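Aim 2 progress update. The chain analyzed this quarter is reproduced below.
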Amino acid sequence: MANTRSAEKRSRQAGKRRLRNVQVRTQVKGAVKKVRELLAHGDGAGARSALVAASRALDSAASKGVLHRNAASRRISRLAHAVAKGGKPAAT
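Predicted structure tokens:
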């Protein structure tokens, strides 16, 4: 447990940030999973529209500092390549 007031505040801040980060990460995972599922079922048009939502979620996570911007960019690129190809996406 924290011994000083500043350490207690840091603990509170870390808890709030953790909750936000978990929430954002969950949204990103869901958006990416939706694109992958649509690709697996051969729904190219649906995958393209889901890709837009997934890229927004990834960009948002990167801007909030939940994901590194290069990691978000890499995931968007791999998903976009898979959607353009129409096949199964590479594991990210």
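Residues 38 and 46 are 6 Å apart (CA to CA). The two ends are 37 Å apart (CA to CA). These observations will guide the mutagenesis experiments scheduled for the next reporting period.
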